[in-house]
Structures are given as structure tokens and as C-alpha cells.
Amino acid sequence: MRVAIAGAGAVGRSIAAELIDGRHQVMLIEREADQFEPHTVEQADWVLGDACEVSILEESGIEECDVVIAATGDDKANLVVSLLAKTEFAVRRVVARVNNPANEWLFNDAWGVDVAVSTPRMLAAMVEEAVSVGDLVRLMTFRQSQANLVELTLPEETPLAGKAVSELNLPRDAALVTILRGDRVIVPQPEDPLEPGDELLFVATSDVEPEIRTALGY
Asked: RCK N-terminal domain spans which residues (predicted)?
């Protein structure tokens, strides 16, 4: 993929390095001259300019990108970049960084955001996931589909031990996508048995999350 990242601070550069390691083409757009450091991520294309300006986005060729990531430390700038990328340049996938959790409600498809990544929320979710057994933990929200990635770890005394995945009576708008078992990542098949300690990852809409709990015996 070709990916454009608005904001070449520590976050933007780290994302760029990871994507380059994954053999993607990356372009970093940075408006601050003191942050413009092409030597830090030499394999990326660098553009000095404000990604909130249509002219800069045109000159950078952003319409040729498959994904735009708005990764600045300013929520207002990230919203403007997202809106321009989606509405003016028809970028297929727009991911935006949320710096202030109070602004998270703004990061939706009305502003061109397909996926909003809130660092504080994700850190809190990781803490919950690490200590919560038997509780449903929301890890991520996919704005375009209004679905969430949620996780539940089966406790040692789970009544589901030994039961097949096909026996789970999940609601219509929920799908079990992965089972994490130790160091294994299992793509669940209908006949696969569940075990205590399994981490179950679901994609589901918010309104059916209580039904997932019920299906898992909570």
C-alpha cells in the first residue's frame, strides 16, 4: 500500500518505520521545520508543508494513497486532514489519532474518519484486558461500520470448557474472529473446543455486547 502520514513527530515516525518494515510505501507530511528530519526515516518520502492545506495535499499526490493517517498532536488538525483526505481526494481508508478522549465523539464518518485510534482509551483497554477475566473489554471501535473489537478471557471455571465453537449462541451482529491460546493464534472453526484461559476476540456492534456476555455465561 501507499500510505500518507500527516505529522512527523515521534508517533508519525514510529508508524512510518513499522509500515516500511511491512514493505509499504510511506510519505510523511510535516509542517514544522524543526520536525522535518528525513534522515530519521530515510526510506519514506518527506513533504514539508501543512497537511491541512488543500494545495499541499495536491502537490504531495495524496489522491494516489490507499490510506491516510492523521497522526499529529492536534485533534483539530487531525479532523481537518481526515475530512480533506476523504471528501476532496477520495482516499479509501482514513485513520485518525485522538489525543484528547473528550474529542473522541467527533472522530466519525462525518469527518471522514474510518478508524479512530485513541491512545488513552487503548492503554486503558490494555490494562483492563490484562486484569479482567470473565469481563468483556472493548479494545477498538471501527467508525465506518459502527462495530467494536471486544475481548473476553475465559476463566478457569468456565462452563464452556470442552464445548465446540459452534455451540456458542452468538447474536446475529457478532462474530468470533480469533482465539488466543498461549502463544497460538487460532482462526476458529466450528468444531474447535474452547479451553479455560482462552482469549476470545469478537467483532460486534455495541448493542449486542450484552448478548455476547449471555452467550458466554455471564
From this structure: 1-117
pTM across the whole model: 0.64
pLDDT digits (tens, 9 = 90+) for 157-216: 889 999 999 999 999 999 999 999 988 889 999 999 999 999 999 999 888 989 998 888
Contacts of 112 (CB under 8 A, 6+ apart): 82, 83, 84, 85, 86, 87, 94
* 138 Cβ contact list (under 8 Å, min separation 6): 125, 148, 149, 150, 209
State the first-to-last Cα distance of the chain, in angstroms, to the nearest integer: 41
Name all contacts of 19-25 with Cβ < 8 Å and 24+ positions apart. Answer: 20/44, 25/1
Q: Answer for the pair 210, 138: CB distance below 8 angstroms, yes or no.
A: no
How many Cβ atoms sit within 10 Å of the Cβ of residue 72? 28
Sequence-distant (≥ 6) Cβ neighbours of residue 38 within 8 angstroms = 44, 46
H-only helix segments in the chain: 10-21, 54-60, 75-87, 119-131, 209-215
| Residue 171 to residue 54: CA distance in whole angstroms | 44
